[in-house]
Amino acid sequence: MPDPAPTQDQHVAQSQARDLVLAALQSLDLDRRVVFILHDIEEQPMREIADALEVPAKTLYARLAVARKQFGAAVRRIRLQRGERP
């Protein structure tokens, strides 16, 4: 049985979630955003990212750790600004 079509409320919730993620990503500087997207969202192996960017893997792991913290903080900040629960 196919999944029922999303409701209007589900569309709104998906749109708000997408906007939240995009805004939080935009808050990251480019170096951190790239490694965050490639590793955590696109699920690329760190070795491949390091080779493609010609940056040591240790450097990328450090950037990723900071990016994760900053992303989480940005999500909480944006939710608070919207009057939502963090």
The general outline is: flat
Contiguous low-pLDDT stretches (5 residues minimum) are none
What is the CATH topology assignment of the domain at 22-81? Arc Repressor Mutant, subunit A
Q: Count up the helices.
A: 4
Our measurement of the CA-to-CA distance between the termini, rounded to an integer number of angstroms, reads: 36 Å
Number of strands: 0
Going by helix content, strand content and strand pairing, the class is: mainly alpha
The helical percent reads over 70%
Beta-sheet strand percentage?
under 5%
Give the CATH superfamily of the domain at 22-81: Winged helix-like DNA-binding domain superfamily/Winged helix DNA-binding domain
Question: Any idea what the CATH architecture of the domain at 22-81 is?
Answer: Orthogonal Bundle
Rounded to an integer in angstroms, the radius of gyration calculated over CA atoms is 16 Å
Q: Name the helix and strand elements from N-terminus to C-terminus, one letter apiece.
A: HHHH
Question: How does the major sheet shape up?
Answer: none
Mean pLDDT: 93
CATH first level of the domain at 22-81: which class?
Mainly Alpha
